[in-house]
Specification:
The chain is of the alpha+beta class and 155 residues long. The chain is built from eight helices and four strands, in the order αβααβααβααβα. The protein has a four-stranded antiparallel sheet with strand order 2-3-1-4, sandwiched between helices. The longest helix is centred in the first third of the chain and has 12 residues, at 7-18. It is globular and about 55 Å long. 28% of the residues are buried. The structure holds adenosine-5'-triphosphate and magnesium ion. The site of adenosine-5'-triphosphate has 10 residues, from strand 4.
């Protein structure tokens, strides 16, 4: 059977088939400094659809669970202390190639090494306080989305 969908219907179908979800957090430093709206504008401007978003505050234990892959690294206590130091905006984002494209938009972990125009270059201060988180692979995205959002919030 040949499926023919002309014009915009074709592109809508293509978008749906190729779309990918990723998980992001606007971190406490960026929220404290009032950069939330500017960062969301960067994200939407780059073509991401915001599927779910909320304001949250997490405990140190919850931050340890989220960043469990880094347990034992020298920066782990500092990282989890920081992530539980104030409100954050966890969110689920969708677009074609969302995981890699968000990482590109965020810039390098250390803002001093981030490319011009990236979110970390513009809004982050240091490697420890770097404004935004983004999933690094499909499996981590699935774990991280489930850590913060219930299925019913992800329609
Ligand atoms: P994130 O997972 O938050 O999106 P990332 O994937 O760019 O950041 P990771 O290697 O996963 O970087 O590290 C997680 C977080 O731990 C970093 O965002 C950073 O805040 C902190 N971190 C990583 N390396 C260091 C370091 N050498 N010194 C201090 N903090 C660090
Ligand atoms: Mg990471």
């Amino acid at each position: 059977m040949v499926l023919y969908t002309g014009g915009s219907a074709f592109f809508a179908l293509r978008r749906e088939i190729l779309s990918q979800r990723t998980f992001s957090i606007i971190k406490p430093d960026a929220v404290r400094k009032g950069h939330t709206a500017a960062i969301l504008a960067e994200i939407e401007g780059a073509g991401f659809k915001i599927v779910a978003i909320k304001r949250a505050s997490i405990s140190k234990a919850q931050a340890e669970g989220f960043y469990a892959v880094h347990a034992g690294r020298p920066f782990f206590p500092e990282l989890t202390e920081f992530m539980s130091s104030g409100p954050i905006f966890p969110m689920v984002l969708e677009k074609e190639n969302a995981i890699a494209d968000l990482r590109k938009l965020m810039g390098a972990t250390d803002p001093a090494k981030a490319e011009e125009g990236t979110i970390r270059k513009k809004y982050a201060e240091s490697i420890g306080e770097n404004a935004i988180h983004g999933s690094d692979a499909e499996e981590t995205a699935a774990f991280e989305i489930g850590y913060f959002f219930a299925g019913l919030e992800l329609k």
